[in-house]
Amino acid sequence: MTASAEQDNGESTTDTSTAEIAVYWQEEEYYHAPDSFIEQANLKDRDVFKRFALENFPDYYKEFSAMLDWYQPWDTLLDSSNPPFWRWYIGGKLNASFNCIDRHLDIHKNKAALYFVPEPEDEPIAAITYQELYVRVNEMAVYLQEALKLHRGDRVTIHMPMVAELAVTMLACARIGVIHSVVFGGFSAQACADRMVDSDSSVLVTMDGYWRDGKWLDHKEKADETVRLAAEAGHAVDRVIIFGRYPGEYRSKCQLVDGRDILINDALKAYDGRRVAPEHMDSNDTLFLMYTSGSTGKPKAAQHSTGGYLSYVTAMSKWILDIKPEDVYWCMADIGWITGHSFIVYGPLSLGASSIIYEGVPTCPDAGRPWRVAQRLDVNIFHTSPTAIRSIRKVGPDEPTKYNYKFKLMVTVGEPIEPDVWRWYYKVIGKADAAVVDTWWQTENGGFLCSTVPALDPMKPGSTGPAVPGIHPVIYDEDGNEIPEKSGKGGNICIRNPWPGLMLGIWGDPDRYVATYYQRYCRDATSKDWRDWPYFAGDGAMQAPDGYYRILGRIDDVINVAGHRLGTKEIESAVLEVDGVAEAAVIAASDEIKGVIPEIYVTLQPGVEGTGSMRQKIVDVIVRDIGPIARPRNVWLVPDLPKTRSGKIMRRVLASISNSKDTGDVTSLANPEIVEAIRKTVSR
Ligand code: WT7
Fold this sequence. Notes:
By secondary structure, this protein is an alpha/beta fold. The protein has an 8-stranded mixed beta sheet with strand order 12-11-8-6-7-14-15-23, with helices on both faces. The protein has a 7-stranded mixed beta sheet with strand order 5-4-17-16-18-19-20, sandwiched between helices. Strands 21-22-24-25 form a 4-stranded antiparallel beta sheet. Strand 18 (381-384), helix 16 (386-395) and strand 19 form a beta-alpha-beta unit. Helix 10 (189-199) packs across helix 11, helix 13 packs across helix 14 (338-350) and helix 21 packs parallel to helix 22 (673-683). 5'-O-[(S)-butoxy(hydroxy)phosphoryl]adenosine (WT7) is lined by residues 292, 338-339, 413-416, 438-443, 464, 537-539, 551, 553-554, 560, 563-565.
């Protein structure tokens, strides 16, 4: 039986390694934001919790839309007549690029909108003012419209490294109503091609190459491969638009394809000085697609709206990240993930702040790099993930103390943070003088679900905090009973109410949207009342007596590597492509730096020999099909996999072996004897 058959069985495998963290965690001590932070905070009025109480839903979300400029005000706040397809701010018209650029020009046109920090430290930092961003976005938008004949509603795929041109291209699309689909630059050509096919997009925007960890990576290679793989799947990519990492140069070894490839820095010269009025988009027009992994193989595109999404990320940036126009804000996530969309590009720019785009890895060329950037640009808000914090701590535990910078606020996101790592973040990186917010949310959500409000709630290491204003969580047990509030008992966390940042749906697959996020706890599938449709996040969580939530990790077949979801099915099906492989199971192994890292257990077909080169082939196919982010720590070739009598692979047992934990009672397995045999293989 193959791994996919397990899916039909309906049982779900708990990611033990993450879930167990919580079991070992104790209640932690509180920390308080310094008075200097509280005095200047955007949100310091406790009244917000009353205004955003559930009985005032949905009216309180008027406040969020009021943070934007609209061409036409909305007439209906929430249309909930077709659950669970909620529609916000109906009748409203706006443009995201106008809100992120044009509306700041009067006051802030000479202020840096973006700083591009190249990885090579001898290359100068580029400051792009709001005026310059306005010019570049306009010229690119006219180019997309006139040269490529793209229209409102068309999709464009962007597969780029962390450079300013990525943000420019996104905003250019937004300006003319083209839907952007950004694929994380580190993803493989296969991943990019799959997403182009799924979103039916025939234009790929890319870059010749970029710097990563001191090495020049040829990125155009991936574009050629993407086009080839898409063609194999019957999908034509007509145009490949290539930015030069060094404008005016082309540093890739790959040939340009006549009629298909365009060096955009040259092509844009003909558009010098051109401007285009922003499209008046409907609030519920799609702004972008962002792919994410779910518990079935195929990645799915979260389809985000214009009005609801932008209102939500603007409000969260203002209230939780405390961003103001005068702030210099650095989020180290990649724009290719939702964190970068919401909190490098749309949120900070909507508020007129200066946002940093850093090309490379944080520890290149040495552990002092982030702090030199912070010191030089006088960064005062810093946003990163537990993975990055752990790796920064490992290479330079005292580095931050050597530099002169001062953060007012710091953010962590992506996975539960160990209290010990939190304390180091707070004390050493934050010099015990900054507010820290631990923000829990997902690709599908647009912005935060849980976090402390930094000037109003104390911080507690390892807990995300209460829900953000307007979000009302509930924890259910397996049978759909509500777990009593503040009981400290674990269960499945859901959100009672819809909110404007929630995606419109899954691109091209409305049934999957309903099945994944609502089926599990919907009280009545025919109900038109939003109260019957709690949003199922797919995370385990518990609420402590003080009301703070602690997230216990994913409850489905998804593993969270370096703060990002990877589908186990996707990885396993890549492994099954290798000749001679019979079965594959991926588990999450604990890792000091990355939190978890995939480990693969493989059985081979009879007569096939388990060699080092077989293991290498398996690693290669994973890196090729998914990307280096999924590179496994080990590939274990084993005689059989532990299975239930119904043939379900017991990943939980494998995870215990990988993490040197007790496997618990395995006597109910169909093949209990295999557990000891596998343990021997692994401990060798
Ligand atoms: C999953 C979403 C949008 C954030 C980037 C990852 C886990 C996220 C936290 C946190 C504990 C967290 C959850 C969630 N997660 N933030 N602060 N504490 N867990 O986005 O790839 O959509 O993954 O990341 O398990 O469901 P994503």
